[in-house]
Structure formats: structure tokens, C-alpha cells
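Cont'd.
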Amino acid sequence: MQEGTAAEVLERLRAGDARAFEDLVVAYQHRVFSIAYRMLGSRAEAEEAAQEVFLRVHRGIAEFRGESKLSTWLYAITSRLCLNRLASGERRMARAREAEETLTGLPSADGDAAARMERSETEAALHRAIAELPDERRIVVVLRDLEGLSYEEIADTLGLTLGTVRSRLHRARLELRERLEKFLP
Amino acid sequence: MTCDHARAMFSELTDRALPDAERAACEAHLAACPDCRREWETFQRMLALLHGMPRLRAPAGFADRVLAAAHPTPWHRRLLRRLFVPLPVKLPLEAAALVLVAVGAVYLVQRSPELQQAARRQTPPPPLREEKAQAPVREPARTRQSADEPAVASQPAAERRAPTPARKEAPATARDQAAIQRYTAPEPKTRDRPAAAPERSDHERFLARAPAPPTVSGRLVVQDRDTAELALAELAARVGATEVSRWRAEEATIVELELPRSAYPELARALGRLGAWSPDREPAELPARVRVVLRLTR
């Protein structure tokens, strides 16, 4: 969603326009779901979390002061929700199993070719490598390398300093490089 | 710049997040250090792999589920939707079910005599005058008589006895005679009854109940009909006869008795004492049970 469009949607949301919320969901559903899936590793849990994100936005739109971009606010809610879920004891126990889960069967934007690629060994290794990153580093990699947020946006989203973002991102990337060494020519 | 220092800047160098001076120093080191350059290239391949991951999409229907959760549908709308949506499927099914129920109901009514009878009773009876005009010899139904009573009572007594020609009603005496003749007459009279008539009066139903023509029939002329009717009842009791039916018309009283053959001679003799007994039909050979129908007139 373009910046101007996002501002317009925000205005309509504040004015109580029901269609504005629909536009927001349609525009951001894939990105929110993608972040949730990369963080939680479970399709069902990611869908549940993504739905909860939009419901929180719907309930809390009146409290949004507009100091950051609408998208940043949305990613912040998504990240916080995922990190909170991951921090729960039950979720930690389940993580070992989910780290082995592959992306088989997940819908992708690139159709059959991408699906075949995702089933490949390299893809599975990459997914495992991301899943095994510590939560606070994984969220930075997901936001930067998979969703394309800038350092500043990540800092706003996660409430971190730019230095912390830089540090966590670099450590995460080095860790990924080490884990994927045998797949890198 | 050392190798460690240069390698620590790989991420920021990739993301163009370094100040110009630091970027230039890092690039110069990479140009001069083959190990760091190899490391840089590996780092870039890993990032290419990461950036090449396909974008994930939310499952189909996800947005609808979110909207439904955000705006819960009221229960009556959900019920209507379940009943009628999808219309192209549910509407024909509901129409077919309606037709089936209607056909079933019609079939049930046609097959159940009780329901048919109930349906017929609900239809109003045709006007009495019309019936009388069409069948002048038929005795008006008892129920209809009572229904007409208020209208008749409002007429003068003379008018009631002798109806106006405008009503096209046969004189009472003629009707009585016809009824008596039809009742006491043998088989052909029974067959002549208007069986095709859709509705029958009480008298017709009375006649229809007569199972067979009487064994003996005749006319008993008496001075006083009331006294004779009483005497006839006593006589029947005395000789062991059973009074099957009694119908009192204006001109005559028709009494139907049933008695054993052995008791008939005594009955015949006693009838002669009550009045002038003239049998129209009296076979020589009587069955074990004799059915006697007599017209009591003055």
C-alpha cells in the first residue's frame, strides 16, 4: 500500500468507514501472515496470530496517534504478538518440533516453480536456519531481508535503537552464513 | 582497516547504511584483501538466497474470516444466510419440497374418505327453493326444515299450509302420497330413486335404509290416527312384533313391523279390529320373519 493510500485508509478508519478496514486487511494480509509464519513456524498458528493482529488494529484504531506510519504500527503489533507467543513456556517446548517443519504446501506468490524451489533441500535448510535463530535476531532478519523494512523502520517497529538493529541483523546474517555454508558455492 | 573491522561492516555495506568515508575504506580493503573479498562474496550469496525466498501468501478466505470476526453477523442474518444462501441451490430445493408437500396433501385428501367427507360438509348446501323446484316430490330434509323454521314461522299459518305458487313447491299432500307410494311400493320404486342426486334428504336416506321390499304391505283406515298409532304399538308388543321404523307424514303414518310368521295371523286379525285393513300385498307363502309395512290413514 502506498504511503498516500495508507494515510487515506487511516483517515477513513478513524472516521468509522467499514470499507477502510477491509481495504487495510486486503492490503496487508499477506505481509502480516508472512511475518507471523516466519516467526511462529506453524501455518495454523500464523493465521490465528495474523487474525488477532487485525482485530487489535480494529479495536485500537482510535488509540493510534499517527506518530509512526500505519504499516509500522501494524508490523509492531505483529512482531510483539509473535514474540509474546514465542516467549510463553508452552511455545518454547513446541519450537524444537517446528524447527524441522518444512515449507511444503505453503502457498507462494511465484506459483509452481517457487513451490518446487521451496521443497528443495537448500530451501528447507534455509528455513531451518532462520527458525533456529534466536527470536530477537530472527525478527530483525525477517523484517529486513524478507519484508524489506529499513533500519529505521525496524527500530520503530521493535522499539530498538539503530545500533541494536544493526548489531542484531549482522549477527543473524553471520549465523545464517555459517549454518548454510555447505549450500553456498 | 583490519579484516575483522571490514567483515563487521558487511551488513551495513550491503544495505548502504555506512557513511561515505567508512564505505570507501571498506571497499578499499576488500579490493586489497582476497580473503575478505571471498568472505564478502559468500556473504552476498547467502543474502541472495535469503532474498530469493518466495513471498508467502495468507490462506484463501483469510480476509473474509478477519472481517467476519471484526463485524459479527447478527443471528437472524446468519439464519437467513443458512436457509437461502446459496440461492441457486437452496431455492429450487425449497420449491421442490413445497410442491411435494402440496401433492402429498392432495393425495391424502383424495385417498381418505373422512377428509373428503369433511371437505364436502364445508361446502354450503344449495338453496332449498332450488332443490324443491327440481325435485317436487322429495320431502324436504329435516335439517333443512329446521334451518328454514324462522322464515316459515314468520309467514301466516294459511300460507304455510298452502305455499304460494311462486315457490314452485308441490302440495304437501302430493308429496306425502308420493313418499308413501315410494316407500311401500315393491322393487321398481326403489330403483327409481334418484340415485344420481348428489345430496339426499333425510326421508331419502330413510327410504334407502329399507333393505328390501316388505313381505306384506297395506292400508289401515282408522277414525283417529293418534289413537290408532297407540293401539298399533300395543298390538305389536302383544303379538311379539318389533317396530322397525315409524314415519309420520301429514296424510298418513307409515309403520314398519317385523314379526315371526306364526304371529302374523293374529296381527292381521287385530288390524281388522283397529280399522279397515286392506293389504296391497300379502303372499300366501310367508317367510319365517315377516316384514309388514302399513299406511295408517283416516
